[in-house]
Amino acid sequence: MFKKLTVRDLTMISLFTALICISSYIRIDLTAVPITAQTLAVMLAGSVLNTKQAALSLFTYLLLGAIGAPIFAGGTAGLPIILGKTGGYLIGFLVGAVVISLIKGKKSGLIRLGLANIIGGIVVINLFGSIWLNYITGMGMVKTFLVGVLPYIPGDLIKAAAATVIAGRLNKYLRYNNSQSV
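The structure assignment produced for this chain is given below.
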């Protein structure tokens, strides 16, 4: 029923979990939600990993942060962060990476990969984040959008473009090496 994880699976999951953890320390505070490099790392995870690997990588990240590892934006940690105003974005990371991986498929071109990053990495993450931010703060969806989504769209589009180009090159390299190692 369930396929066992290989050493390669575990390595990829671990590498992308570490990348997401490290990217949380690159932070700029604008409004209620900080700008971090995490969305870029999440987009890369979804763009490079298969769906199972992406889900496990993001689940591991969330679990580590929930139990106290200081890996959320700016070195924060704990369940209160997940339950706080940025928690929807964190849960959106998991769903977004899975959506990206599902949309990109097995052998996707740059256009499909770019579309996957926009849908999963921008729309899904911001949808989860803004709904939760509105629920926690009660500021209304229009104000939540203006504060928690709109200021981040230009940067998110740049991150989506960067993730698309990087993942496109990385996927070609990984496919080539997989065919050589058989």
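Interim note for the steering committee: The longest strand covers residues 27-28. Strands lie at 27-28, 35-36.
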